[in-house]
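[Meeting: bench + compute handoff]

Bench side (C.D.) handed over the final construct sequence. Compute side (W.E.) agreed to return the predicted structure before the next meeting so the bench team could plan truncations. Sequence as handed over:
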Amino acid sequence: MVRIPASATNMRSSSRSAMDTQLLVSFRLPREDLATFVRSGDFRGKLTEGDRAIASTAGSELGWHLDEAKRVKGLSDIRPGLGRNLVVVLDDPRRPVVHLETATL
């Protein structure tokens, strides 16, 4: 389970189900809450500078423009039956934008 901090703002989400279920969520949060958020998700792996773990076209229906981000950190967490990708845009280092993509596999 991933816990979105109470300090999160500008939340957007979308889901769809077909053969797989996909959930997209994005929000801004204060930089000091980022580490707590990542720990809450028990992600396998660490955020890595420059990792664009989510396709640049994902989330376009939510207004995501990942291809325009200058500074990002990301990680992929693939487990049996569940895939999670996380990208944090740090263009505003005080209020990063978190992008989370999950899919049941």
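W.E. noted at the follow-up: Strands lie at 9-17, 21-28, 48-49, 72-79, 82-89, 97-104. C.D. will use this when planning the next construct.
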